[in-house]
Amino acid sequence: MATLSTTHPTLLDLAKRQDPDGKIATVAEILSETNEILDDMIWLECNDGTSHQTTVRTGLPEGTWRKIYGGVQPSKSTTAKIKDSTGMLEAYAEVDKALADLNSNTSAFRLSESTAHLEGMNQQLAETIFYGDVATYAERFTGLAPRYSTKASGEQSQNIILQGGVTPDAADNSSIYLIVWDPNKVHGLYPKGSMAGLHHEDKGQVTIENLNGDGGRMEAYRDHFRWDCGICVRDWRYVVRIQYNDEDLTGDAASGPDLIDLMAEACDQVPNLNGRPAWYMNKRAMSYLRRQVRSSTSGSTLSREDYNGKMTTMFEGIPCRRVDALLRTETGIATS
Question: 204 — phi, psi (to 5°)?
């Protein structure tokens, strides 16, 4: 059974602690409602402005078998320094002043109209957590797929599991991730001195010009939202990426990817589940997982449980989160 850590803050926890008037907390709550990753992801303040420097242990010291009167050579662990950056995600929300003023609570109406913009930011964050690559988009942050992209080299290649050990197809693959969120394992980042990385500014009444491209004008209320965020993988052992051929999925796993078997193997890859472990998969994978569990002759590994106050689908005691940002058109992971 996974151990739920309650001592490390989610985005909503941070916002409630740091925001006395509740405005940022309200924004964080809306974000959490529409992005299941935020139910699990813990956040730490950057230690270097908008970036975060950490020391990662890459090797353990070796002991020495000593005989009587024999010497022992000193040894030490090997480490590497890594630096993770944050990205700046922004949106402006504008609503017709006349429409907003028709409501008895203008502020609440404006926030409700901003929900679509916040959902768009949420989808951008989810996509970047998995596929962000500063080599391609320098203004973002590096996500998980570029860090776990090859079986040919690197220690993290040990935590890449391929369907049946076969080489993936060229471009019709998808991935399931197991992540253990913890300050010493994997966590989110927000800039030093910021309010959980979230900013909301009421820009007040503005005149929008050249409305619809016809030169017209409109009085509107404008809100500015900014989300400064990133991700740090301090210990590669606590992320496991499963890549499988999406089009070969079957309900009984008689052929194609056996999701139950692949996810069971992923559980055995991480040293422990202390922290906030969670599975992340798209809706098609979630559906086929349920069907494969139903058709299995062994005891069910899937359940519905109250997890942190919400009824949640669980596999091996770990919550399963639906993330539709996980593509069905991934390029196959390199094996050589």
Answer: 75, -155
Using CA atoms, how far apart are residues 182 and 277, in angstroms rounded to an integer?
Answer: 9
- Please provide residue 287's backbone torsions phi and psi, each rounded to the nearest 5 degrees: -65, -45
- Is 90 a residue whose pLDDT tops 80? yes
Domain that holds residue 229: 3-56+82-322
Distance CA 168, CA 174 (A): 10
Which residue, among 195, 231, 182, 187, has the nearest Cα to 26 in the 3D structure?
195
Query: Residue 321 pairs with which residues in a beta bridge?
Result: 280
| pLDDT band of 281, cuts 50, 70, 90 | very high
Q: Is the dihedral of CA 117, 121, 124, 126 positive or negative?
A: negative
Please check whether residue 111 lies inside any domain of the structure. Answer: yes
User: Per DSSP, what are the bridge partners of residue 51?
Assistant: 48, 85
CA distance 225 to 300: 44
Residue 39 and residue 10: Cα distance in Å, rounded? Answer: 7
- The residue among 126, 238, 242 whose CA lies nearest residue 180 is 238
Residue 61 counted as domain residue: no
Tell me what pLDDT residue 189 has. 93
Q: How far apart are CA 34 and CA 282, in angstroms?
A: 14
Q: Is 74 domain-assigned?
A: no
Q: Is 306 within the bounds of a domain?
A: yes
Please state the φ and ψ torsions of residue 167, each to the nearest 5 degrees. -70, 130
pTM: predicted TM-score of the whole model, two decimal places: 0.84
Distance CA 285, CA 130 (A): 16
Task: Specify the number of domains making up the chain.
Answer: 1
Which amino acid is present at 96? D
Is pLDDT larger for residue 237 or for residue 166? 237
